[in-house]
Amino acid sequence: MFRPLPFYIGLRYTRAKRRNHFISFISLISMLGIALGVTALITVLSVMNGFEKELRERILGMASHAMLLGYDGKLENWPVLAKIAADRDDVLGVAPYIKAEGMLTSGQQVSGTLIRGISPSLEPAVSEVGNMMLFGSIDDLIPGEFGIVLGKDLARSLGVLRGDKVTLVVPMATVTPAGILPRLKRFTVVGIFEVGMYEYDNALALLNIEDAARVFRMGDAVTGIRMKLSDMFSAPQVTRELVKDLPGDYLMSDWTRQHANFFRALKIEKRMMFLILMLIVAVAAFNIVSTIVMLVTDKVTEIAILRTLGASPGSIMGIFLVQGTIIGTIGTLLGMLGGVSLALNVETVVPMIEQMFGTQFLPADVYYISEFPSDLHWNDVYLICSISFVISFLATLYPAWNASRTQPAEALRYE
Question: Which of 38, 148, 213, 262 has the most CB within a 10 Å radius?
Fold first, then answer.
């Protein structure tokens, strides 16, 4: 079988037992360094992808994929608009809502709150709040009975449980013979939910949409319509298309605009972590440079003999390119195998480490996400392995080029 001379000799140099064991040791360290860097990159990026996915699901469990709003804060003919939106194939569900702000009091406890009026029958089509109830159900929000569902931290700050009474203070004045008084309404706590996001658990309260319309004097209007899409990442495109189909001028928003800064920060953090961990691979690549330089020094006589027998400088360069590339390739493949295996088993490996050392990395009483989620993206794996291979190859160029410049007469002068 035909094998090019540089590949054949480079392969022999790689497999042969060298006289200089220190060079072999440096080669092994280079290989393990690249493997460690690739493993760390794949694992860390998978965990970061997992956290991003978990946070996105928790946010979108309460927020909607897209929203249709009126310019003046009121949407009058919302049933017609909801039907137009629901008829689209890429819209899975629609639900009206009323959004307002108020202040809840219970005894001596006072807390500002964000009020959301919902339709218990339609809300499950656009959010997961019904599956996040600790006590009670959103179906207990019966119109006319003035029930209220609170976030867990909001209920804790008010010191109330299911069945207790709270007073809602609305920022609207009521004119009475005694003067101008703030609007007050007594509500009964019928449920408590926990999303796992502080901004919701500590500030959100849910009312029946009819009760909210009565308290905030909305009449038959609502604040807007919330929509759930078949593909959440197509939300910007869907909102642009939908606003063109609607009769009249309306405002459209989607989750990418509402939480743009948050997800942008996650992406920046992921990129910076990628660059920082890629330095591990770069350090291992410097070891490849050291390995090839020392190997060239060790093999200078053999290089001179090959040149004397007619080997071209390009062939000599190819020999050492092959050896450095083999080190980088094996290290990259080992790192890919270790990184993918670890990323797919993070949920198993981390509890074992916690049990072994008697600690907990993410205590449940401190962090809302108490486990390490992992979401392996094969595109990340391919990108990491490609960059690792390229860095390894580039690290081999200079010492290989330096070997090709060896002069036979100078090398064999003292032999």
Answer: 38
Task: Judge if 244 and 271 occupy the same domain.
Answer: no
Distances (CA, A) of 30 to 283, 287, 330: 8, 5, 10
101: three-class secondary structure by DSSP = strand
pTM: 0.67
| pLDDT over 70, % of the chain | 83
Same domain, residue pair 209 and 330: no
Start-to-end Cα distance in the chain? 35
**Which domain range does residue 29 map to?**
5-57+262-412
Domain count, the chain: 2
Structure tokens at 272: 């910076």
Same-domain check for residues 248 and 266: no
Structure token digits, residue 303: 């290089």
So what's the pLDDT on residue 279?
83
The answer to whether residues 83 and 224 belong to one domain is yes
3-state secondary structure at position 167: strand
